[in-house]
Amino acid sequence: VIRPEPCGVCGSRIRFGKTAIKCCQCQLLLHSKCREQCPSLCVPRPHHHAWPREGVLADFAPSTPPLVPALVVQCVTEVETRGLTETGLYRVPGAEQLVREWKRKLLRAGGALPALSSVTDIHVVCGVLKDFLRGLKEPLVTFSLHPAFLRAADIPDDAASDTALRHVVSKLPPANRDTLAFLMLHLFRVSQSPACKMDVLNLSRVFGPTLVGHSSANPTPLAIMEDTPRQCKVVARLLSLPLSFWRGFVGTEQENLVPI
Questions:
Q1: For residue 30, what is the enclosing H or E element?
Q2: In this predicted model, what pLDDT tens digit does every residue of 211-243 receive, in sequence order?
Q3: Residue 179 near residue 57 (C-beta atoms within 8 A)
Q4: Domains of the chain (ranges plus CATH)?
Q5: Pick from 111, 116, 165: which is nearest to 141 by CA?
Q6: Where is the Rho-GAP domain (predicted)?
């Protein structure tokens, strides 16, 4: 190391003259001793230098599976590293100006993302993730499959509802499906943290409008009113699906995707 830089795993500086490990694909830099804690999911740099300001999820996804955008992986990794003891995770808003600044910075960076360890307030990182998902041209569940998700979640019988939801999830575009799986595994871990006080109901209220949205880019006021409670129901039902179902899409257990 010639110029001291922060370790991508522990966040502390790697000092001048020390040996470090750097990934040739995603450029992650870390202490040799931090190698074991390194997230195994590597997101190669995209061919273009910057991401679009808005687009469908596939525009941000890497070329090799699991097709989870680097921005999503980095935000989730940071939240799981130091946010699972924060009360109201994803419910408490971060400073709006900082959220906008960091989202802009990450989008400009493309695949070579700056470290989020320098963001003091973890709620800002949560805000960046939510803002990125809200800013997509269509929600994660897509406009065309939106009605099918709502119908599946409305089925009174739990087993039948789960079967229908699994079927609809499998019809999502690969990047949307993989990212949804990655997020569900993450949100489950958040729901299991007593310190966060964010159970499945709270998380479904926060992420219903963000992940499910509406069936068109310009919904009517009536559609917004009717969709809102059903959006939350969809996310709650998705979070009730077995973790093994979601792990099947991202190809590894959540514990291996983020540092413990």
A1: strand 29-31
A2: 999 998 888 889 889 999 999 999 999 999 999
A3: yes
A4: 1-45 (3.30.60.20), 57-250 (1.10.555.10)
A5: 165
A6: 55-246
Amino acid (1-letter code) at residue 236? A
> What's the predicted TM-score (pTM) here?
0.77
Q: Is 4 exposed, middle or buried (0-12, 13-18, 19+ CB in 10 A)?
A: exposed
Peptide bond into 229 cis (omega under 30): no
CB 28 within 8 A of CB 22: yes
pLDDT tens-digit readout, 70-128: 999 999 999 999 999 999 999 999 999 999 999 988 888 766 777 888 899 999 999 99
Per DSSP, what are the bridge partners of residue 82? none
Six-digit token pair at 107? 């989008």
